[in-house]
């Protein structure tokens, strides 16, 4: 019998391979939403993956004074798209939820509806992108509400290596989130391998000191084929070292070069963290709807999955 996504994430001997996507923009006709979902799954039919990550896109303009490179557009409810993709693909999904916009009562109603109407189990809760503006529900309070809810969920959290690079405490956030119910983490897109290595190392050492078993960290990678996409990545807070930026932009084939960089970064992370016993996973996304970048993300998935599978086989052989 095939393992569920939850079982795979919880079993460190298993590989975990995901595809990240965003729902269509709000106002898209229902038939068109189904068409978009089928088109995505059609692109993915030649690869084997364990499930899909559906993001909850929010206007993050409060986080920075820099103008957003691409205009913000509200999307259809991520739960609707999650249910549709799950039904069409017959695979498990992970659904993101931004919690800051509603109070605790509304959030509780949302949780009930998520389980009873949409039959969704795997959640990643996301807090406010900024301390500015009105925050109706903090992330810790959302975790608390979920822990007391009558329905149970398989809860994940977001981890951002760039925060660790600047504040040196992201590993402590992971421990706090674990205590609040998180059983896995999904990273922001990786372009700075050293920041990720430092985070995983700090997390592994803290877990060892406290006698804890590390949760799985699912590493996100995305291709980058243009200066505009690069601007968007940096606007989102993704750290791109200067040399990496020019290596992409000065290349005659920027997309292919970004794929090579992602593979090098994953190899470096795997080599540097092999002794730490932190189970890792893979999540591949495309940050734009450009066909070239979507196709490149599928090629990137193939390449990085093969890299991860080889690493996992070597670890199992060594043990």
Q: Strand portion, in percent?
A: 5-15%
How many helix segments? Answer: 12
Give the strand line-up of the largest sheet.
1-2-3-4-5-6-7-8
Low-confidence stretches: none
Which percent range fits the helix content?
Answer: 40-55%
Q: Give me the Rg, rounded.
A: 19 Å
End-to-end distance? 25 Å
Major beta-sheet overview: 8 strands, parallel, barrel
Secondary-structure element order, as H and E?
Answer: HEHEHEHEHEHHEHEHHHEH
Dominant shape: globular
Mean pLDDT: 94
Number of strands: 8
| Protein structure class | alpha/beta
Structural description of this entry:
Keywords: Oxidoreductase. InterPro entries: FAD-linked_oxidoreductase-like. The protein is of the alpha/beta class. It contains twelve helices and eight strands. The chain has helices at residues 5-10, 30-44, 78-89, 104-116, 139-148, 161-167, 170-179, 193-210, 227-235, 242-249, 254-273, 291-318, and strands spanning 17-21, 51-54, 92-98, 122-126, 154-159, 184-189, 216-221, 280-285. It has an eight-stranded parallel β-barrel with strand order 1-2-3-4-5-6-7-8, surrounded by four helices. The longest helix has 28 residues, at 291-318. The two termini are 25 Å apart. The relative contact order is 0.13.
Task: Characterize this entry briefly.
The chain is an alpha/beta fold. It has helices at 5-10, 30-44, 78-89, 104-116, 139-148, 161-167, 170-179, 193-210, 227-235, 242-249, 254-273, 291-318, and strands at residues 17-21, 51-54, 92-98, 122-126, 154-159, 184-189, 216-221, 280-285. The longest helix is centred in the last third of the chain and has 28 residues, at 291-318.
């Amino acid at each position: 019998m095939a393992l569920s996504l939850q079982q795979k994430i919880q079993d460190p001997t298993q590989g975990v391979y995901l595809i990240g996507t965003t729902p269509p923009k709000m106002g898209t006709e229902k038939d068109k939403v189904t068409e978009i979902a089928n088109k995505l799954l059609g692109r993915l039919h030649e690869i084997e993956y364990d499930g899909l990550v559906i993001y909850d896109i929010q206007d993050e303009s409060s986080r920075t004074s820099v103008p957003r490179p691409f205009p913000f557009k509200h999307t259809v409810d991520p739960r609707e798209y999650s249910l549709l993709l799950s039904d069409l693909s017959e695979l498990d999904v992970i659904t993101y939820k931004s919690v800051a916009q509603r109070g605790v009562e509304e959030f509780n109603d949302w949780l009930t509806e998520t389980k009873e109407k949409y039959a969704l189990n795997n959640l990643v809760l996301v807090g406010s992108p900024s301390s500015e503006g009105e925050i109706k529900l903090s992330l810790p309070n959302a975790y608390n509400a979920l822990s007391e809810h009558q329905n149970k969920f398989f809860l994940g959290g977001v981890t951002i290596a760039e925060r660790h690079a600047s504040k040196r405490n992201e590993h402590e956030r992971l421990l706090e989130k674990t205590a609040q119910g998180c059983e896995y983490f999904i990273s922001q897109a990786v372009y700075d391998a050293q920041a990720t290595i430092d985070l995983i190392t700090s997390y592994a050492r803290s877990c060892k000191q406290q006698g804890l078993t590390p949760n799985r960290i699912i590493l996100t990678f995305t291709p980058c084929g243009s200066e505009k996409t690069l601007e968007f990545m940096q606007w989102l807070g993704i750290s791109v070292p200067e040399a990496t930026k020019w290596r992409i932009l000065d290349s005659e084939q920027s997309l292919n070069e970004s794929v090579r960089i992602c593979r090098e970064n994953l190899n470096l992370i795997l080599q540097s963290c092999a002794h730490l016993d932190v189970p890792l996973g893979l999540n591949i996304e495309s940050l734009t709807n450009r066909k070239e970048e979507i196709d490149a993300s599928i090629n990137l998935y193939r390449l990085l999955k093969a890299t991860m599978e080889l690493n996992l086989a070597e670890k199992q052989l060594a043990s």
